[in-house]
Write a structure and sequence with these properties.
By secondary structure, chain A is mainly β. Chain A contains no helices and 11 strands. Chain B has no helices and 11 strands. Chain B is globular, with a radius of gyration of 13 Å. The chains are: A mainly beta, B mainly beta.
């Protein structure tokens, strides 16, 4: 039973365009959501997060949107750059130490 | 520089042998974690420890063991009881002040032949 789902295993986007990565969750008790970026053979690095009291958080080219009623969050990357090609993981937390992770979406930025 | 180190980066073992993966952090973090990543799957929690000399099983603890004798170190032993040990193993840590944002090591790719 996956509590955090990333339904798109991969996504291909033209350089300079917007990349939108989606994540759905089932546990309404989740109150903190994070996005991590992972290159091959490396550990994930924290990208951006959002608390359930907000519906948007922006950091440079990265914006995360949270729709609590739909139990959905998304990561927007504008404009997309070649270095953004990586696997992106969505994770959620219920205010404890355990993060619940999605399966990841592989983002490919085409030149 | 502060960070988390995992060694070795690549590890090969024969089937039936126990193997221990190292994880060290100098971030003064209280909590440490071990995750396993398999293709097409999210990170799955093996074990975690919130304080020295204490640890709890995660979702897939069977076939693994850990110890937390020092705050800086959280080694993971993959035992011969683990049925499918070939995977990418990630260690992470976080502080009490930032309980939800974990910092990861570079990972160890274990291949059992």
């Amino acid at each position: 039973d996956q509590q955090v789902k990333q339904n798109s295993p991969s996504l291909s986007v033209q350089e300079g365009r917007i990349s939108i990565l989606n994540c759905d969750y089932t546990n309404s008790m989740f109150d903190y959501f994070l996005w991590y970026k992972k290159y091959p053979a490396e550990g994930p690095t924290f990208l951006i997060s959002i608390s359930s009291i907000k519906d948007k958080n922006e950091d440079g080219r990265f914006t995360v949107f949270l729709n609590k009623s739909a139990k959905h969050l998304s990561l927007h990357i504008v404009p997309s750059q070649p270095g953004d090609s990586a696997v992106y993981f969505c994770a959620a937390s219920e205010s404890n130490y355990q993060l619940i992770w999605g399966a990841g979406t592989k983002l490919i930025i085409k030149p | 520089d502060g960070g988390i180190t995992q060694s070795p980066k690549y590890l090969f073992r024969k089937e039936g042998q126990n193997v221990t993966l190292s994880c060290e952090q100098n971030l003064n973090h209280d909590a440490m974690y071990w995750y396993r990543q398999d293709p097409g799957q999210g990170l799955r929690l093996i074990y975690y420890s919130q304080i020295v000399n204490d640890f709890q099983k995660g979702d897939i603890a069977e076939g693994y063991s850990v110890s937390r004798e020092k705050k800086e170190s959280f080694p993971l032993t993959v035992t011969s009881a683990q049925k499918n040990p070939t995977a990418f193993y990630l260690c992470a840590s976080n502080s009490r002040q930032s309980t939800d944002t974990q910092y990861f090591g570079p990972g160890t790719r274990l291949t059992v032949l």
